[in-house]
Amino acid sequence: MKHCLFILPGPVPPDTHSANSRFTFLSKVISGAIVQSSWSTQPCAESNFSLHLHRYISKPWLVRFLWDLLLIISKGTYLHYARGPFSAVVCYGTTKTALAGYIIKLLTGAKLIIEIPGNPRQAFMDNNKPFSVLSKIRNACVQRFINFWLRHADGIHTYYKKQLDGYKVTSHIIIKTFPEFVAVSALRKKLAAGKLIMFLGYPWYLKGLDVLLQAYVLINKEFPEYQLLVMGHIQADEKDYLRRKFCPQIAGLTFVPGSCWAEAMHQLSEAAFLVLPSRSEAMGRVWAEAMAMGKPVICSNVDGIPDYVTNNENGILFDSENVSQLAADMKRLITDQTLYMRLSENGYRYAHEILSEQNYVSAFVSLVDEVCHER
Fold first, then answer.
1. pLDDT exceeding 70 applies to what percent of the chain?
2. Is 40 in contact with 68 (CB distance < 8 Å)?
3. pLDDT tens digits, one per residue of 254-275
4. Sheet holding 88-92, edge to edge
5. What is each CA distance from 150 to 108, 120, 254, 281, 285, in whole angstroms?
6. CA distance 204 to 202
């Protein structure tokens, strides 16, 4: 059994034992430890993974970055020598986590695997400030990090085929493309109980919430019975701005604070369909969760989404930021029951057959085995 160290960005602690956790399924074939900063530092040991959290500190970015980096490196190195060597260090992200993993690799000799969760070329995208000076500086730094990992990592997990287009990939690195983990077996099919359109995610600009709000305004007079529920970690001032700018006269809009996975899935189970209008998205797990419950999905045709969502087959794709097209697709889904049921059935089948937990575990273990030269 492989022994791996997972480095996560935090600050939300991972659930290592419930049905919605990838570690529950990975623990059947992989053992190891998880290290990250977190709001909570309660220790936890479940199955074959031990969870090691250190306190997230509310300090300036550079202080917090260096603090987390030091603690992750020291804890990971200690675990390697005190509790058995790691076969690989698996890092989620391309900045702090990957840097910590690289240093641990140098100190321990473990292999380094980088998981790239987004479109690396869109790292500059902020809420309503896509081209700010700070964003450009941050993006330039991220690009340097990514190019460094493409020379020094041993394995890379990408979510879609073209995720690293434009980068010079070192030939010795093993790259595997497969979906991120989705807890499809924990979700049950449920047809809509009411007329509710669901948006789930944050940050709102990256996820294209403003595009959805404008499209919702266009259909609201014709379909006033359809409510729009927005769920995410959106601050009060952001909610005021979005409502005031895009839909000040609309009564059918409700904001719900971001919550735990179970609560988010409960809200989604009550929706008629889900809209994910992202400006950038490596995969977008929420549409897969909606499919697993038999909910039709409308997604923007960007980055990795069209690798999974086929237009008019298991979902609807629209051109990113095309408000009128999104409004027309929402209207079509509301009025065409045949289309609604086809997308519901095909999406449900796709999620449970293609995106199953077993398929994820098989693909992940294959990546680790190849990186560690065991096939």
1. 93
2. no
3. 999 887 888 899 999 999 999 9
4. 44-46, 49-55, 30-38, 2-7, 88-92, 111-115, 155-158, 174-177
5. 20, 12, 43, 21, 25
6. 5
**Structure confidence by residue, pLDDT tens digits, 108-128:** 999 999 999 888 887 666 555
Question: The CATH number of the domain where 341 resides is what?
Answer: 3.40.50.2000
> What is the per-residue pLDDT for 21?
84
Please tell me whether residues 268 and 210 are part of one structural domain: yes
Tell me, yes or no, whether 235 and 104 share the same domain.
no
Q: CA-CA distance, 45 to 16, in Å (whole number)?
A: 8
Contact (CB, 8 A) for 76 and 69 = no
Position 45 scores a pLDDT of 45
Q: Going along the chain, which residue ranges are E strands?
A: 2-7, 30-38, 44-46, 49-55, 88-92, 111-115, 155-158, 174-177, 196-200, 227-232, 253-257, 273-276, 297-300, 316-318
| Pair (256, 335) in one structural domain | yes
Tell which residue, 282, 321, 286, 299, has the closest CA to residue 165: 282
Full-model pTM: 0.90
151 and 18, same domain (yes or no):
yes
- Considering the domain architecture, whether residues 165 and 222 belong to the same structural domain is answered as no
Q: Give the structural domain span for 297.
A: 184-354
Beta bridge partners of 300: 318
Amino acid in position 118: G
